[in-house]
Design a protein that fits this description.
The chain is mainly alpha-helical. The protein has one domain (11-161): Ferritin (Up-down Bundle). It has helices spanning 11-37, 42-67, 80-99, 104-118, 123-126, 132-143, 148-161, and strands spanning 73-76, 127-129. The chain has a two-stranded antiparallel ribbon. Helix 1 (11-37) packs antiparallel against helix 2 (42-67). The longest helix has 27 residues, at 11-37. 26% of the residues are buried.
């Protein structure tokens, strides 16, 4: 049970978490877009769907933290204003990608770069927790999909090998 008297995050940090949730949802939307674009390749479409669902899971983790209103959390480990600016730039970049039709190779390469940049945007790495059980919960939720980049790289290597 979480102690309701535990430290809560400042409003600016909660807004940042909202931005993270929104960005994760947009990333999922991009991957679903790729799933539709490459629906004729069942393996590739399956990869995009799996990756999109994992991004949706990340968004839900941020949503959970927001619903907790920072209870059990001390602070965000980043310069919130700079991070928000970076999120906006990435969102603009994603909008351009969604308006285009990259090749499967280009889409995989873009996703790899995106995932590498987003690897720091995980609840377990950007928030300082005061509640150890809550920290472990978020870490456990992240454990199952730590290999995004390697799975995407493997798929890109297979395509390049053809």
């Amino acid at each position: 049970m979480i102690d309701k008297t535990a430290v809560k995050l400042p409003m600016a940090h909660l807004r940042f978490l909202e931005g993270c949730a929104s960005f994760e949802a947009k990333t999922a939307e991009l991957y679903h877009h790729f799933e539709r674009l490459y629906a004729d390749d069942a393996g590739l479409a399956r990869l995009w769907r799996k990756t999109a669902l994992e991004e949706e899971n990340h968004a839900q983790q941020f949503d959970l933290a927001i619903r907790l209103q920072g209870v059990g959390m001390e602070r965000v480990r980043t310069d919130v204003s700079q991070a928000v600016t970076n999120l906006h730039r990435l969102e603009e970049f994603m909008e351009k990608i969604m308006a285009s039709k990259p090749s499967p190779r280009e889409a995989l390469a873009l996703a790899i770069r995106l995932e590498e940049q987003l690897s720091v945007l995980h609840m377990s790495s950007i928030v300082v927790f005061t509640d150890l059980k809550l920290k472990k919960l978020f870490e456990a939720m992240m454990d199952h999909d730590k290999d995004h980049v390697s799975v995407l790289r493997d798929a890109l290597q297979k395509l390049q090998g053809n």
